[in-house]
Amino acid sequence: MKYLITGSLAIFILLVLSGCLTCEKKEYVFELKKDGSGKLTIIYHNIMSAMEEDLDMSEKDYTELTSEYMEGNKLQEDYPNCKIKRYKLYEQDGLLNGKVSIYFEKIEDVKLYQHQGRGHYMLSLCDYSESYVSSNGEYGDEIMPVVFWDKGLNELKLTTFIDEPGEQNMSLIDEYKKSK
Prior knowledge:
The chain has helices spanning 2-16, 58-70, 74-78, 173-179, and strands spanning 20-32, 38-50, 83-92, 95-104, 113-114, 121-124, 131-135, 138-139, 146-149, 155-161, 169-171. By secondary structure, it is α+β, with helices and mostly antiparallel strands.
């Protein structure tokens, strides 16, 4: 019984101490070349730490952000066939933002699809924990959560909403300033 309680306590501590990185919104810009390769730039607006059980996890989450995303291979896991060239954090309007440049050889490597290699470009938002905000394409709405872009476009833009700033989400700007 002692081991069961200790094990349960360890699991509880891990759950409580596992913060959660989030951001307010993300901007995606796909720059396409004629051969199907290109560059994806993702801008993370207002990077935040989601509070857990009213505990401030911002220091832990900032460490996770820098060690797993910037210095580690978390983004590479999300885009395994791509080259992650540049990741930077910066302050804008008092908030912490991040920007990453991802180079790809095929549009499929960045989760885009083009029907039979010559139709509209498409990106499904079904597997994302993000909500559509805007794009330079057309959104199929909840019935078909797919963004469609004209096949003649060289630059595809998409903005998604992730999480609200507020009492349960703390900006990581103070942690960023401490690290400078």
